[in-house]
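Dear support,

Our group has been running a series of protein-ligand predictions, and this particular one with alpha-L-arabinofuranose is the one our PI (initials K.S.) wants archived with full inputs and outputs. We had some confusion internally about which version of the output was final, so please treat the block below as the authoritative record. The input we submitted was:
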Amino acid sequence: MIKKTLIAASAITLSAFTLTACAGGSEASGSDSDGAIVMGFAQVGAESGWRTANTKSIQESAEDAGIELKFTDAQGKQENQIQAIRSYIQQKVDVIAFSPVVETGWDAVLQEAKSAGIPVILTDRAVDSEDTSLYESFLGSDFVVEGEKAGQWLVDNAGDADVDGDGTINVVQLEGTTGAAPAIDRAEGFADVISADPSIEVTASQTGDFTRDGGKKVMESFLQSDDSIDVVYAHNDDMGLGAIEAIKAAGLKPGKDVKIITVDAVHDGMQALADGEINYIVECSPLLGPQLMEIAEKVVAGEEVEARILTEETTFTQDEAKAALPDRQY
Ligand code: AHR
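Confirmed final output from the archive:
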């Protein structure tokens, strides 16, 4: 039986961030005494509702699949993720999976895993590496398409979005973590599509680090320096929810005086959409656990897997959010 337990911090020196494991075998070796697959998973952190749902999906799916999961929370720091991956290599796990905090800087540690014969699966976010032999598969969303969907809604609703009716739609962008794939790609997809309409302009863009608090603080400063903001485009729901707090504090009505577009569709975001405080959400599914475990089983068995596995996603208007909320899993 697989049992969740905490590995003593002294077993592997990982002081700055948390390391938990489902342990069935010894801490020094990846081999489980029951012959179960051992997976080391290096998570980004707990920055958003999306991330919390993603972690839950991975932990529950590992348990359902009988995979022994060694799990680390890197608290948003690339160095912590690299340290965790190195510890998994030392422990000789069967497979490593991770969601890279940022796109670049992974080649050395991925080469170490490859040299140790440990396959790596990327989930949620990609790495910017020319050597695609460093990982087996990348499971996750197409963030460029998500940005395009957000931009398309704005182009299609440009009339309503020109809140002050001055003929220009001033958009402020709340970016995700600097250097992270979803921040880079969601900005790119959005910019590409809105370029079709010269009346839409991104007047300010700053990172809120995918957190509610970050979104609130950046939005407060945008509101102080500009009284002609028509639209907020936030790279995730949490930053959009933070922006809602700032907009209300400035005496304005979110969703009416300032239109809001976000990405994710987690429960709190969907509730704000149903309540009329967000105008449109592009879905990004965090429920990657079941597919990840299937890929891991195949990779460990030496079977071929697809190099790129895309998740299926939709979009939500306010009416669609009202209809979807009762059955929403996260
Ligand atoms: O990589 C996925 C992104 O990371 C989600 O959209 C965001 O909420 C999370 O922090």
